[in-house]
Write a structure and sequence with these properties.
The complex is a heterodimer of chains A (215) and B (585).
Chain A (H helix, E strand, L loop, with lengths): L2 H6 L2 H5 L17 H28 L12 H25 L2 H31 L8 H29 L5 H30 L2 H7 L4
Chain B lengths: L2 H8 L4 H6 L4 H31 L9 H37 L7 H20 L30 H29 L12 H32 L10 E2 L2 E2 L7 H34 L7 H14 L15 H13 L1 H15 L8 H24 L1 H7 L3 H31 L5 H27 L17 H34 L75
Antiparallel strand pairs in B: 1-2
Classes of the chains: A mainly alpha (215), B mainly alpha (585).
């Protein structure tokens, strides 16, 4: 069991449009469809969040902008997501090396960390609502809710994939592939979150004006 | 895994798994196509209702100003998104990609099925807005805030909400489909099918899909934020505003931000529709003139160049919104540069025709007609790409004429050409030729009769988007007469589409049997063991490809085409990459 297997086994294509007897061995050099599909999907999501951040920066440059100081819970969220990503790294390595019990255990922790991240984000929302930062009364607040909600939805989507990976037969090539893909998506979600966090916390109207050459 | 096992397990058995919850790309393609054609007919009816008002103002009292704007909005949105985008990517993309690259199916069949049903849901949500209180939105297809979500714009109550929700759902569907198309092209090509041997139809659809995947998020962002402005009262786009004598709760939002986001999607959208059309036309022209496509490699590079350039031109839709003159200069320049790869494609089509053995079959007629309408629409694009020419023309019928020629008539001619061309593969029968010719000539001449005079109305200064033109001293009587004439032409063209629909339905049972390769085409989709192709497409073994898709009239060959999967010694290989430059490979 090694990385090659990951590239050879692919979810749907293996099952439905699998090769006939004459096709055997033809596609061995190709990466798994699911792997490429995930890269493409990550491109789409990057485009989505890139545009959200562009909109955020452009909207910031208006007189009614009042920065919202982030609740402390977002730092806990960050730690949870980073921990999830690290555990997933372990899971992927273990699965590639054939240590399936270890892989499965790490995978479970990775999912739990992501679920805890979502809970922590909800707590952050509650903290903001408690100090009357409403979704509609200040654009900075609106963006905070919008961006965290969109990111959270992508984490929840990841948890669906994670549940599927949890149910794959332990030790099968498909399970290995799914763990590796989950891990990659977890790292990606962490990267997106770090960029969002940076934008929410450190991007200021002055900085935007400076970047746009009007500072 | 043996193929027979695979077929036994997954060849659909019941009516439902075969035709409704199908995961077969060919069935999904037909589902996409039929739904798109249905909403397209709704769009045609809406356009005729608009023409009733414009041609014969005051005669049809049920078309009041509100209804008129609702018709305009729904017509635009339906045609651009729910007809053309869905038909080219969901219809042609689904059918052609696996067959043309020699795959057994899309790589994610289940996702593919979901894509169709989610698209169907978006259509239902869209059409449901006709039946809610207040009717569909009348904000114009660009949905510019603030007016789109202000009281006083028709469809304020529910129409705009349903429109935005429907768009968000559509984007989810398009993304699911798009992941499939891109991954299938990258991953599931059969042996020998290098990227540079793919038919141009696949290249066009592939690049359009990449554009869709990157550009639709912009529509998603703008649509979602506007939905929140409307429902939660956020102020992403809504400035402080007094509406109908009331100070609203909005403040500080930026309507211009919406325009940037919308057009960052909106311009690539033009090429999401145009690139598949370019690709399909290239194939039709090559097959029906029995000649290899001229400059295959430049065609591919032109598709890529157009795709890249199309994401840096969006603000040319916003010259009248006001911007820094340097931005205007930048966007005008990039816009005009697109003319270069586009012109390369047009020259290549014409040179392919030159001294070809041209067969004026119905698909070929549509393909040649496309070149003509596309050149007209492209040339007026050069007018409008220049800021100083655009500003006086922007709010006139000149723009209506331009974008209908280039992005309405041109792609729809390709849709027709493509359907006449591939219908025999889909059903095993030919479409009726006589009906096809009537349909073609009425549509081709008719669309010219509709849109060509609009250029003159525009130069005359006739403003677009107006419900009525009473009491404008500068609009002469002849312009009103022209409007009546345009309306009559529009009714005739619309009626001709019924012939097409009839032909589609009638020929399924009564058309002439087509055989497996009626056009004697070289590309892979015509080489399937069965026609129509069965589940799995290729029988026990996938085809092996030995040459490009354009081996026509090869000297010394026994037939005037050599199939892509014919044995290597049949000849007809593609030209060497650097042959023309004398380089040694």
């Amino acid at each position: 069991m090694n990385a090659n297997l990951v590239y050879r086994a692919s979810g749907d294509s293996e099952r439905r449009s699998g090769p006939g007897p004459g096709d055997v061995g033809r596609q061995h050099a190709r990466r798994a469809a699911a792997s490429i599909g995930l890269w493409v999907f990550m491109g789409v999501v990057s485009s989505l969040f890139g545009l959200f951040i562009a909109a955020y920066a452009m909207r910031m440059d208006s007189p009614d902008w009042h920065a919202v100081s982030l609740p402390w819970q977002v730092w806990m969220s960050t730690a949870l997501l980073a921990a999830g990503s690290a555990v997933m790294l372990v899971a992927a390595r273990a699965a590639r090396d054939g240590r399936f019990t270890m892989a499965h255990r790490a995978l479970r922790f990775g999912g739990l960390a992501a679920a805890a991240f979502v809970a922590s984000q909800l707590w952050a929302w509650q903290a903001l609502l408690a100090i009357h930062v409403m979704p509609a009364n200040n654009p900075a607040g609106s963006f905070f809710y919008l961006l965290t909600a969109m990111h959270g939805l992508h984490v929840l989507g990841g948890l669906v994939g994670w549940a599927v990976a949890m149910h794959a037969a332990r030790g099968s090539a498909r399970a290995t592939l799914r763990i590796v893909l989950c891990a990659r998506y977890w790292h990606f979600l962490l990267a997106v979150w770090l960029v969002l966090l940076a934008a929410l916390n450190w991007l200021t109207p002055e900085l935007v004006r400076f970047i746009c050459g009007r500072g | 895994m043996a193929y027979t096992d695979d077929a036994a397990h997954h060849g659909p058995t019941s009516f439902f798994t075969r035709y409704i919850w199908s995961q077969d790309h060919k069935v999904i393609a037909v589902q996409y196509t039929l739904v798109a054609i249905f909403v397209g007919l709704v769009g045609v009816v809406l356009s005729n209702l608009m023409r009733l008002q414009l041609g014969f103002p005051g005669h049809f009292t049920f078309i009041d100003a509100n209804r008129y704007y609702q018709f305009v909005t729904m017509h635009g949105m339906i045609m651009v998104i729910y007809l053309l985008t869905a038909l080219f990517l969901g219809g042609f993309g689904n059918y052609l990609i696996p067959l043309m690259v020699g795959a057994r199916d899309m790589v994610f069949p289940y996702l593919n099925m979901l894509s169709f049903w989610v698209y169907f849901l978006s259509v239902l949500v869209l059409l449901s807005s006709f039946f809610v209180p207040g009717g569909p939105t009348g904000a114009g297809w660009t949905l510019y805030p603030p007016q789109a979500i202000l009281r006083g714009t028709p469809g304020y109550e529910w129409g705009i909400i349903l429109m935005l929700v429907s768009l968000l759902i559509f984007i989810v569907a398009a993304t699911m489909g798009g992941l499939n198309y891109v991954t299938t092209v990258l991953q599931a090509r059969t042996e020998g099918m290098t990227l540079m041997r793919m038919p141009l139809a696949v290249w066009g659809i592939f690049m359009a899909t990449i554009l869709a995947l990157l550009a639709f998020p912009a529509l998603f962002v703008s649509g979602l934020m506007m939905l929140l402005d409307r429902t939660l009262g956020t102020s992403f786009f809504m400035p402080a505003i007094v509406s109908l004598g009331q100070q609203l709760n909005y403040k500080g939002g930026s309507p211009l931000l919406f325009q940037h986001l919308f057009w960052f999607f909106g311009h690539p959208e033009v090429y999401i529709v145009a690139l598949p059309a370019f690709g399909i036309v290239s194939d039709l022209i090559s097959v029906h003139s029995r000649k290899s496509i001229f400059g295959y490699r430049t065609m591919v590079w032109a598709i890529l160049a157009i795709g890249v350039l199309s994401v840096v031109v969006w603000a040319h839709h916003m010259f009248v919104s006001g911007m820094n003159p340097y931005f205007g200069f930048f966007f005008a320049t990039t816009t005009l540069i697109i003319a270069i790869p586009t012109a390369i494609k047009v020259y290549n089509w014409v040179i392919t025709l030159w001294r070809g053995d041209i067969h004026f079959s119905v698909p070929m007629l549509f393909a040649i007609a496309f070149v003509s309408t596309f050149v007209i629409g492209g040339l007026t694009g050069l007018f409008l790409g220049n800021v100083s020419v655009d500003i006086p023309l922007s709010n006139t019928y000149f723009v209506v004429a331009h974008f209908h020629m280039v992005m309405g008539v041109s792609p729809i001619l390709v849709v027709f050409g493509g359907i006449y061309h591939w219908y025999p593969k889909v059903t095993g029968r030919m479409l009726n030729d006589t009906l096809g010719h009537i349909h073609f000539w009425v549509t081709f001449v008719g669309t010219y009769a509709i849109f060509f005079p609009m250029h003159y109305l525009g130069i005359l200064g006739m403003p677009r988007r107006y419900y009525a033109y009473d009491n404008y001293a500068f609009i002469p009587e002849s312009a009103h007469l022209m409007n009546a004439y345009i309306s009559v032409a529009a009714f005739i063209v619309a009626a001709a589409q019924l012939l097409f629909i009839f032909n589609l339905a009638w020929s399924v049972r009564h058309g002439r049997l087509a055989g497996s390769n009626p056009w004697r085409a070289a590309s892979l989709e015509w080489q399937t063991p069965q026609t129509p192709p069965v589940h799995g497409n290729w029988g026990p073994e996938q085809p092996v490809v030995h040459r490009w898709a354009y081996a026509y009239s090869v000297p010394g060959a026994s037939e005037d085409f050599i199939a892509q999967n014919a044995p290597p010694d049949a000849g007809g290989a593609e030209p060497e990459p650097h042959a023309s430059r004398g380089a040694v490979a």
